[in-house]
From TrEMBL:
Functional note: Endoglycosidase which is a cell surface and extracellular matrix-degrading enzyme. Cleaves heparan sulfate proteoglycans (HSPGs) into heparan sulfate side chains and core proteoglycans.
Keyword check for Disulfide bond: no
Protein localization: Lysosome membrane; Secreted
Record Gene3D superfamilies: Glycosidases (3.20.20.80)
Membrane topology of this protein: Peripheral membrane protein
Record Pfam families: Glyco_hydro_79n
Source organism (scientific name): Artemisia annua
Record-given protein name: Glucuronidase 3
Amino acid sequence: MGQFNFQKGVCILVLFVSLRCNMLDASGADDDEVVIQGRVFIDGRSAIAKIDSDFVCATMDWWPPEKCDYGTCSWGHASLLNVDLNNKIFQNAIKAFSPLKIRLGGTLQDKVVYQTENNPKPCVGFTKNTSVLFGFNDGCLPLSRWDQLSNFFRDTGAEIIFGLNALAGKTVVSGSAVGPWDSANAESLIRYTVKKNYTMYAWELGNELSGSGVGTKVAASQYAFDTMTLKNIVQEIYEGVEPKPRIIAPGGFFDANWFKEFIDRTPETLDIITHHIYNLGPGVDQHLVEKILDPSYLDGEADTFKQLQNILKTSITSASAWVGEAGGAYNSGHNLVTNAFVFSFWYLDQLGMSSVYNTKTYCRQTLIGGNYGLLNTTTFEPNPDYYSALLWHRLMGRKVLSANFTGTKKIRAYAHCAKESVSAQ
């Protein structure tokens, strides 16, 4: 066992998740007090993984107010096209992280058209149409709104990952999107971004088109070719410009065979490979709380992290792994569950678990919007998971240590070297 003698101290997440055990056992106990004995083992001799210093990330989406699930419309004015950028609570919530990575994307990103300086066509938002892919007609990002967003993110110190439309130019045939990516519109936006000196952390290509896809899919070989196209465009436009943005893909659900082929075909193209997590099922599920508090259910996601880690280890790629979007329960989550205190047991466990498998960044769906936002969609006030995210960001350092709790499966232990200088013995 390590000697608990670290220059920067040790931060142990077990203090948070132990609350789950106390709550569950005390509720069914005959005695007033229940004592659970266990042991935490931390090997402090060397790190088993390393995360980014700005590991915590959140997403912002394109969904308009008309996006409804199970009869409930939970998005309000939280879209990239209409969220109130002048709200002080919103601004301060982002500034508190200094910096916070924000991934701009989601289902409708593959239906976004970008306004260009030489295009006189009207730039209109999404309109509902249940007969088309994803239930909405194409929407447009006005350059004036991109200016507002870019200035807002600069002023709040955010690091931006922008998800580009990967379906541009493709034809959907029998559930598959075929043909090469038409990069012209995306290239125009990138050139405008550089012209305006807006700093981008990364450009990401596509959303949930990997494997069997959501709505439609793109073959791994074609996706690799399209990603190389994006890489070449970025290299050309950013020549002589620093810092250069990363290239990220595919922003989809993990499929071992698809991901392996894609990674093998992009060894010098891809900087970061992203996958999405909604392992709790649909937001309408009435048993979400039971799943969140069931250790055996939570353990199931570890296999995804493990498989992706093994693929990266056995490939010649230098790409690292991110969770690019994770809301737990899909279709906007579940009110009073995925935006309530109980969800922190799932969220914190995900942060700890993903770190162990060398995931560099974890993007929570969403910063605001739906029923799984870190902030309330209407008031912008923080939901409980906002404080979980901020606490992690301030305490948990980059070096991940091996930690194990024995005594009950209802307590999890994750340990990192502390972020700030702390004397610990």
